[in-house]
């Protein structure tokens, strides 16, 4: 079962609230800038975030080497101590995922988020075995990361129910955008903590029983998403839905350009004390015209 905030009984960390999938910053030659990466994590915490999730999709984890991934986790764990750090450790193979999970736990991560293995198709038996191997390897909570549009592997409700019986599995971040699947999951497996992973569904995800949000918009405007979450939990439904409407507008603005370029461009436009740098190739930042268009839209929203 869950408590009033949606936190599942299987979740000893009690992960909830706004947990941004923080960026990996790069220098202009695309080397990882660990100092700026930590500065961004600290920025979202200063903005009210309740946790940080390095090496998610916005952290460009699939474009990093194993050593870079390890150093990002070490840097963020060392630099953030006010909120939980839940590190992304997913990889195509169980072997590599376990290695990343063991390292993250040893580096001080409070939990690990494990994206469903990608490229090769998985059946239910393989998916369950994968999560069992990870959970048995570490003593920190394990959160499933369900994003079939990127991995090609959707979890069945039967597989999720079996995964939930594994000691150490604490919750699930759902980026499927499949609200009926999520609603059935929270109903069938209520002992897990659920986090909604799409800015298009923050309020609907909370309505469906999620304990919190993993929000890309919160990477650039953490205070906006924290205000939405706080309003929702305070029972201020009209206010929460008004803020969700603003999040829709911000989401549309930052998605109006190359894939995933909007967050780093928006951060640069805020003129903070760190520079997020480029995305790693083959991804790219917004060009001048795209940046000007984003700046104008953010100005219209009063967010600069």
CATH superfamily of the domain at 17-221: Aldolase class I
- First CA to last CA: what distance? 42 Å
- Nearest-angstrom radius of gyration? 18 Å
Instruction: Quickly count the helices.
Output: 13
Write the topology of this structure.
Elements: E1 17-18, H1 34-46, H2 66-79, E2 86-88, H3 94-107, E3 111-115, H4 124-137, E4 142-146, H5 148-151, H6 157-163, E5 169-174, H7 179-188, E6 193-196, H8 202-207, E7 212-213, H9 217-220, H10 222-233, H11 237-254, H12 261-269, H13 288-300
Parallel strand pairs: 1-7, 2-3, 3-4, 4-5, 5-6, 6-7
Summarize this entry quickly.
This protein is of the alpha/beta class. The chain has helices spanning about 35-45, 65-80, 95-105, 125-135, 150, 155-165, 180-190, 200-205, 215-220, 220-235, 235-255, 260-270, 290-300, and strands spanning about 15-20, 85-90, 110-115, 140-145, 170-175, 195, 210-215.
Q: What do you see in this structure?
A:
With 304 residues, the protein is an alpha/beta fold. It has a domain at 17-221: TIM Barrel (Alpha-Beta Barrel). Helices cover 45% and strands 9% of the residues. The protein has 13 helices and seven strands. The protein has a seven-stranded parallel β-sheet with strand order 1-7-6-5-4-3-2. α2 (66-79) runs parallel beside α3. The chain is globular, with a radius of gyration of 18 Å. The N and C termini lie far apart (42 Å).
Which characteristics define this entry?
7 strands; alpha/beta; 304 residues; TIM Barrel
